[in-house]
Write a structure and sequence with these properties.
Strands 1-2-3 form a 3-stranded parallel β-sheet, sandwiched between helices. The chain is mainly alpha-helical. The protein is 55% helix and 9% strand. The chain is globular.
């Protein structure tokens, strides 16, 4: 499904962003390109990729990961138009799911948390609390497994599986709501979990 690198853009070195894109975007591209001849030879073949709500709604401090998931969303839209009905193509959008990636210790270093002169000190000072809160909202893996099974076995799989959104809303609803809001209002709402 990929890797997760969370960081403020000002503090993210290009190598971290490159690593994020290499795994989450270029790796997917290479695999699909490599296996397309085989998939074309098998009736009923399908491609299933994992994405995230972060590919629909970017959250503060999540720039490398969200960038990779937005790119994956664009790639999958293009792939569906290129393949047409020949090969079913689905993308599964999650939020935090009970996996090794969710269990990883992703909070910033102690030096960043202690640096009160940083323009992002409000973000870093609450990062451990937000991480602990997020881990209480982890979805069980079987919710995602059900969507994967449907994408793999359904006669007519969906192009997009909205497995999870935020605050009980599917990501498609969130995207619609945010598209109606002025940019400043949307930005304010994205910052709310951090400012609390």
């Amino acid at each position: 499904a990929g890797i997760l690198i969370e960081e403020i853009i000002e503090y993210t070195d290009a190598e971290k962003v490159r690593t994020q894109l290499e795994v989450n975007v270029y790796g997917v591209h290479r695999m699909i390109k490599h296996f397309l001849p085989l998939l074309r030879s098998k009736p009923g073949a399908r491609i299933i990729n994992m994405s995230s709500i972060a590919g629909v709604l970017s959250m503060f401090g999540n720039q490398p990961y969200s960038s990779s998931k937005f790119a994956l969303e664009a790639m999958k839209t293009e792939i569906r138009s290129e393949l047409g009905p020949e090969i079913a193509d689905s993308i599964i959008k999650n939020r935090l799911v009970d996996t090794e990636m969710a269990a990883a210790d992703a909070h910033p270093s102690d030096s960043k948390i202690a640096d009160t002169s940083s323009p992002y000190s409000f973000y870093y000072s609450t990062s451990r609390d937000r991480e602990a809160q997020a881990k209480t909202k982890i979805w069980p893996a079987d919710v995602t497994a059900t969507a994967i099974l449907d994408a793999a076995t359904s006669r007519r799989p969906s192009a997009r599986y909205m497995v999870a959104g935020a605050n009980g809303l599917p990501s498609s609803v969130l995207r619609f709501i945010f598209s109606l809001l002025p940019s400043r209002a949307a930005d304010f709402l994205v910052l709310q979990p951090i400012l609390r």
